[in-house]
Amino acid sequence: MRVGPESLARHDLVREALPADAFERYSGFVVGGSPFNVTDPASSKSEAQLRLESDLEKIAAAAADSRTAALFTCYGIGVVTRLLGGEVTREHPEPTGATTIELTADGRADALLGDLALRFAALTAHKEGAAAVPPGAVLLATNDGCPVQAYRVGERLYATQFHPESTPRAFTERMAVYRDGGYFPAKDYDVIAARVLRASVTEPPRLLEAFAERFAA
């Protein structure tokens, strides 16, 4: 199932608060990255970041309670992990580009990830990740560099460290925005971008299709 543009709403939570009627207005949420890190010192967090984290926690809590469906990616997995009482750490960063993801036994049996290849390439770029699967979550995907790549809570809350929502071209455009953000040496942008554009990332978008198939009203 493909959800057309007319059925999608894009909301920039960095700039605008979560609408009060969000859970009545939307049947589900896909949360992308952000310019922030969960592990940023509390004293350095702006009002916008604190509000954003609070809004994301509301979405995650609602999905964990089966009041909505949500798929959190990258920065979002940190917010969910912390909400669940897990630890977010900078011990498992991954360089910008494609990495290999492997499904766990639970991942192979999962309603959304189960139809993906056992091993597949996905795009990542992050400074932080979950130290371990948080309480109440089921590990669905892993790799050596960052062991917690995807997990599920209940039946309607999913979180991935990798980016299922981005094409290689869109990823290089995001790289340009964060060129000086410390994710990679700025001088290496062209080399890394060329490597990203050559990457074959056919499986991650199928996760989004499965999410829409299962949860779109």
Looking at CATH, the homologous superfamily is: Class I glutamine amidotransferase (GATase) domain
Number of domains: 1
What share of residues is helical? 25-40%
* Fold-level CATH name: Rossmann fold
Question: Which structural category fits the helices and strands?
Answer: alpha+beta
Q: Describe the biggest sheet?
A: 7 strands, mixed
- Total E-strand runs: 9
| Secondary-structure element series | HEHEHEEHEEEEEHHH
Our count of helices gives 7
How far is the first residue's CA from the last residue's CA? Answer: 11 Å
Low-confidence stretches: none
Judging from the principal axes of the Cα atoms, what is the shape? globular
Proportion of beta-strand residues: 15-25%
By oligomeric state, this entry counts as single chain
CATH class: Alpha Beta
Strand order of the largest sheet: 1-2-9-8-7-4-5
- Mean pLDDT across the residues is 94
Radius of gyration: 16 Å
Name the CATH architecture. 3-Layer(aba) Sandwich
Quickly list its features.
7-stranded mixed β-sheet; two-stranded antiparallel sheet; alpha+beta; 31% helix; Class_I_gatase-like; Rossmann fold; 217 residues; 7 helices
